C-alpha cells in the first residue's frame, strides 16, 4: 500500500509539473563541500566556484570562514539578499543551508555516529503552494557500516518531520564509495536517485580523485517528477551537473581553470527543478 501511495503521488506531481510553462518556475539546488582541505574553511577557490554556479539553494558542508563569520561568507558568495541557516552548538564541521528564498523555519538533529557535526534542515518559502524542505548532511567518513544506521536514522527523522506531499531535498556529502552502497540504498527507499549528475565527459564522481560519488542532491517523490535539465554557460546537462573547472575553457566567471585542483576534496553537484505556481 505504501509503495502504491508514492507511485500515485509521483504521478500526481508529474501532472502538476507538466503545467503550462508560464505557470511554473525553475530553481537550482546545489550540494557543496568546497572547503579548503587544509583550513577546513571556505577559501577563494570554493567561493569562486559557488559564485560561478549561482545556485538558488545550497546545502553546504564544513560551513566555516576564517575571514569573518557565516553572514560575511554568504554576503561574499551571493550578496545581502540571500538567507542562511547554520547548525548551532559549536560543531567543528557544521552543515547549513543558503537560499535565495526566505527561510521560515530551521533546525538540526543529532547524529550519534559522528561527533563534529549534525544534520541541518531548513524550510524555504518558495513560490507556489508548497514549501521546500532542504536537509544538509555530511555522513560519517570512516567505517562504512556506521553509515547504514546513520542513513536509517536520517530517513526516519525526515519522514517524521516533513509532510510526504511537500517538496523535500536531501543533499550533502554521503562519503560513499559507490552507488551500490547500503547507506544509499536505505535513503533511496524513499528518496529518488533516477538522475545522476555528470560533467561534460559523463563522469558522475565528485571526490577530488574523480572516482567516488560522494555528493548528492536527492528529491523526494513529490519533487522528483519536477526535475529538468541543468543549463550553465550555454551547456545543458540532462541529469544535473558535476562542476569541474578544468573541463571548461574558460570556466564561467569568476571561477578559474585550476580552482577544482586547489586543495578541494569535493566537486559540487547541482540539479534543476521546475514546479507549478498553483
Question: Explain this structure to me?
Answer:
The structure is a single chain. The chain has a single domain (2-272), classed as 4-Layer Sandwich (Deoxyribonuclease I, Chain A). The chain contains 5 helices and 14 strands. The chain has helices spanning 2-17, 44-53, 70-78, 144-161, 182-187; strands at 24-32, 57-60, 83-86, 96-99, 103-109, 119-124, 132-138, 167-173, 215-219, 227-228, 230-232, 235-237, 241-242, 269-276. The protein is α+β, with helices and mostly antiparallel strands and 278 residues long. Mean pLDDT is 93; it is low at 5-10.
Question: Which descriptors would you attach to this protein?
Answer:
5 helices, globular, 7-stranded mixed sheet, 278 residues, 5-stranded mixed sheet, Deoxyribonuclease I, Chain A, alpha+beta
What oligomerization state is this entry in? single chain
Overall geometry comes to globular
Number of helices: 5
Which CATH first-tier class would you pick?
Alpha Beta
Strand fraction equals: 25-35%
| CATH-derived architecture | 4-Layer Sandwich
Percent helix, as a range, is: 10-25%
Distance between termini? Answer: 28 Å
* N-to-C series of helices and strands: HEHEHEEEEEHEHEEEEEE
- Determine Rg (CA atoms, Å): 17 Å
The average pLDDT is 93
Largest sheet geometry: 7 strands, mixed
Topology overview:
Elements (H helix, E strand, L loop, with lengths): L1 H16 L6 E9 L11 H10 L3 E4 L9 H9 L4 E4 L9 E4 L3 E7 L9 E6 L7 E7 L5 H18 L5 E7 L8 H6 L27 E5 L7 E2 L1 E3 L2 E3 L3 E2 L26 E8 L2
Helix pairs in contact: 2-3
Amino acid at each position: 500500500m505504501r509503495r502504491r501511495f508514492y507511485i500515485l503521488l509521483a504521478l500526481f506531481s508529474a501532472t502538476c509539473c507538466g503545467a503550462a510553462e508560464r505557470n511554473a518556475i525553475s530553481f537550482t539546488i546545489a550540494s557543496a563541500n568546497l572547503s579548503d582541505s587544509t583550513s577546513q574553511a571556505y577559501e577563494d577557490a570554493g567561493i569562486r566556484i559557488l559564485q560561478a554556479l549561482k545556485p538558488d539553494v545550497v546545502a553546504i558542508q564544513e560551513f566555516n570562514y576564517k575571514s569573518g563569520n557565516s553572514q560575511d561568507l554568504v554576503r561574499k558568495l551571493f550578496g545581502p539578499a540571500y538567507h542562511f541557516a547554520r547548525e548551532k552548538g559549536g560543531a567543528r564541521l557544521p552543515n547549513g543551508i543558503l537560499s535565495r528564498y526566505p527561510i521560515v523555519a530551521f533546525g538540526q538533529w543529532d547524529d550519534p555516529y559522528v561527533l563534529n557535526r549534525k544534520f541541518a534542515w531548513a524550510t524555504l518559502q518558495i513560490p507556489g503552494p508548497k514549501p521546500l524542505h532542504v536537509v544538509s548532511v555530511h555522513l560519517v567518513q570512516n567505517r562504512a557500516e556506521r553509515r547504514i544506521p546513520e542513513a536509517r536514522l536520517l530517513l526516519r527523522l525526515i519522514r517524521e518531520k516533513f509532510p510526504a506531499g511537500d517538496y523535500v531535498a536531501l543533499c550533502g556529502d554521503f562519503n560513499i564509495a559507490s552507488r551500490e552502497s547500503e547507506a544509499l540504498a536505505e535513503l533511496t527507499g524513499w528518496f529518488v536517485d533516477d538522475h545522476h549528475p555528470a560533467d561534460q565527459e559523463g563522469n558522475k564522481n565528485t571526490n577530488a580523485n574523480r572516482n567516488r560519488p560522494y555528493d548528492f542532491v536527492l528529491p523526494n517523490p513529490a519533487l522528483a517528477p519536477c526535475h529538468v535539465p541543468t543549463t550553465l554557460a550555454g551547456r545543458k546537462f540532462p541529469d544535473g551537473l558535476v562542476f569541474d573547472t578544468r573541463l571548461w575553457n574558460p570556466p564561467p566567471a569568476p571561477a578559474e581553470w585550476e580552482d577544482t585542483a586547489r586543495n578541494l576534496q569535493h566537486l559540487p553537484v547541482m540539479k534543476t527543478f521546475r514546479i507549478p505556481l498553483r
